[in-house]
Structure formats: C-alpha cells, structure tokens
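May I ask for whichever protein you like with its backbone structure tokens?
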Amino acid sequence: MRLAPNITGEDAPKGKLMESIQLKKLNIEDLPSPPSVAVKLLELFDDPDVALKDIAKVIQVDPALTAKIVSYCNSPLIQAARPIETLDGAIVMLGMGAVRMLALSFSLFNVAEEDGGFDYSAFWTKSLALAVSTQSISHLTQMNPDESFLAGLMTNIGEIAVYRQTPDDALTGSKVNSIESVIKHENKLLGFNRFEVGAEILSRWNFPEAVVQFVKDINQDQTGKQRRQADLSWQLASLFSSADATLEQIQSCKDKFHGELAINEEALELLFAAAQTKWIDYAKLLSFRHDGTAMSLRDIELAAKAKMTEISISHVKAQQKIAAENEKLRTTVYRDPLTDVLNRRAYEEQSSQAFARCCRVKSFYSLLVVDIDYFKECNDSYGHQIGDEALIHIAKLLTSVLREYDNVYRYGGEEFIVTLSDCNQEMSLAVAERLRELVESNPLRTDDKVIRLTISVGVVSTEFANAQSVVELFEMADKCLYRAKASGRNQCILMTQDILDSLNFQSTETIEQT
C-alpha cells in the first residue's frame, strides 16, 4: 500500500475496524501526516529486495536525520569501539533492520503541527519512554528488538485523534494509570479509544504489519501477548517518565512484572535503571525536555512515600485548620460578643444535655438566675457605655470563682444564668451568696467614678425540685429571683416548698410590680 502525505478519505481503505468507531465522526484525514522521509522509508518496508544504499539515499535527503543517526552511533546507547563519522559507517555498524527502524523512528518525531493546542513535545517524550520500555523487555517477551522500539513508539499515536475529538484534560494519559483504565475511560466518553484509532492510522500510514497488529491487539485481545507486553511497557514507562508516581503505581508495576515475567524486585530494579538510562540518553540525543536526573525505582518509591506522608500531614493540618475555624465559628455563635460569656443560645442547647446527664447518673443539678439590681438607673445615670462596662464587670466576677465545669450565660439584658453540676440545695445557695458578696465588695471603677453594683439571685436545685425538664427548673429559679427583688434586692432566695406554694398563687406580673 502506498501513502501520500495528503491522503484523502476516498483513497484510504475503510476496514471493519473503522466502522466501529464512526469514521465520519472522527476525521482521521485531518491528522498530521508523516514527514516525507518517513513516507519513503515506509514504502521501502514493502520491498523485500531493498538494499542499504537505497535506505541511505532516503536518509541523506534529511541532513538533521542523518546527523541524529550518526550521533546515535557515537552515544552511550551504542558504546561503539571507534567513532562513527559518516552515515555509511553508521549503516554498516547498525545493519539493515536497525537502520530502517531507527531512521523511521527518528523521522516520526517531527510529526506535529503548529496549532490545535495538543502538546506534541510531551506526547513524543512519553512515546519515547514507551518505545524504550517495550524494547527493554523485548528479550523477555521474544519480540524483535527493532520492531518493539517502533511498536512502543507508536502505541499512543491514537491519542492525537482522541484529543482532536475531545480536547479535554479528562482524556489525557496522565489521568489514568493503566492501559485498561485508558480503554475503559475513553470508550465510556467517546465510544472508541486511542488504540482502536491508532491501529487504523498506522495501517493508513503503511506501517509494518507487525506494528499495526501490536497496537490493534492492545484493544482487541485483552489477554493476548501484545496486550500484556504493552501493559508492562506502560507501567514501566509511567514510572520513569512521571514526576509524581504513586505508591499504587509502583506496587502495580511490581505485581505485573512478577506475575507476567516472574521478575523479582531486584531484577526489576536493574531493568528499570537500564530503561531509564536509555530513555535519558535518547532524550539528550533528540533534544527532548529532560533534566537528566535519574532515580532508582527504590528512590522513586521513597519519594512517593514521602509525598504521601506530606499529603497526610497536610491533610491533618487542613483538618486542624477546619476544626479551629469551626471552633471560632462555634465561639462566635455561642458567645455573647460584649461579655464573652456563653449566650442564651448556648444555654438552651447545653443546659438540657447537662440536666439529662445529672438525672441519668442521679446527681444534682442547680440553676442560679442572676439579675443586676437597678441596672436601668445605672444606664440612665451614667450612659450606655458605662452600662456595658457594668455588664462586662459582673460577667468577669461571676466567672472568676466558678469551677471549670460550671457555666455562666448571659440570658438577656442584665440577666445571667449560672449552671452548677453536682450541687445540692445547700451548696448552690453558698455559691450564690459568694457571688453576691463578691459583686457587692468589688465596685465598678472607671476613670473618674466608683459605681457600686449589687445582684439578686434565684436559686433552685434538683435536690428539692421535682422538675421534669430544665425549663421547669428555670421557671422555679426565675420565681425565686423575683421574690428576691420584691424583698429588697441584693439577696439570694433559695426555692423551698413554702415559697413554691405561695408563688403558685401569684402571677409573675404581680411579683414584678411588687
């Protein structure tokens, strides 16, 4: 089959393969054509009587290609005993098969186009890694070394067509770690995959049948020799051509090489090092982007572990940051912005839980409802700024003498609630009196004023009250507070049966008025 660089859809053969991937939808004819040198070399593959001089004539047309082949002979890849200075000398050294494959491979690296957004440099760098990997294991898979290099090089050629169909990062090989995952991913998105398309492209470009069949079998024969070899090459190439190999990739590579070729980790290390070195040497020869740094498989694994540790630490730090932000938010939501004690919302959520716990463990739970005496007069006489300072002052005093597990809440206005766990009637009243005396003996001192403040406190404990909920307990403490205020303020009233009985006949409004 002959191939012209501007082949049209009418001239190209349409086989059963292309029917399955909708040729009209995927415009293969728009793909870049092989360089003219590659076209002529491919034509020579069909001629069993071709001579080295015929191949030399084709190569010499391209001085850059000639220079690359000569440089190849003098590179660490060959380690020639004497320098090679001419193409004839290179051809004699390499032999017919190697020269044909090498010249064709080197010429194909020029397949690219100016626009379209496809990263041809990255594509060919990765393809070179696949070529080197495929050739490196060819002696283990009984594949012709020269053909294996070319087959590996062209394994991914269909990716260009896939990108043309959907130029999306979701389709790039970097997002998937195995041939199987590539096939499943692209079949799901497009109904076809790069290997299916690649085989058709190579057939149209008149590639050797062995190379075409190699790529075709990757897609069609999931358990066949070609598919298994391609998968091994993919695994190996992904490790030394990727800057961020994962532990999962490394272990997968080890498992596949051990399962398919019975290669242990030590032998794989040697194979990996040889393939990586060859890839770096090729990259230098072809002026591909590469920093020239080689890492052993063990080093790559250690780097992956370090990265995983770093990710874990970052995750922990992120979780800690989220927890801190949540705590800050919780603090904002549950704290009174003026006094910095807990607010009414916090009381309503926390007190029910604390009350239930005390009932469950048969412990006492007490409430103190605290109100600043004559607070309105304080505001009227000194202004709201001093009133705010008075609230802050009282909140600090209340908090200063309580246990860590007791809480102070600003319930609203000048009213506070103190909750006491494991406190009976007598202990609760003692705490209330201590708070009252503390406030009375510590006046608010401003720049030019000393303002004496007092509080009234209503006290109730579950030791006395047969309350079914914290709401009932609060109502009792609140009634005691009103009794304290009605009795002259600056005092603590403890709920007793006599007070409860007498208050049952009075409304809250009546007590407030007294």
Strands lie at 342-343, 365-372, 407-412, 415-421, 444-445, 450-451, 455-461, 492-494.
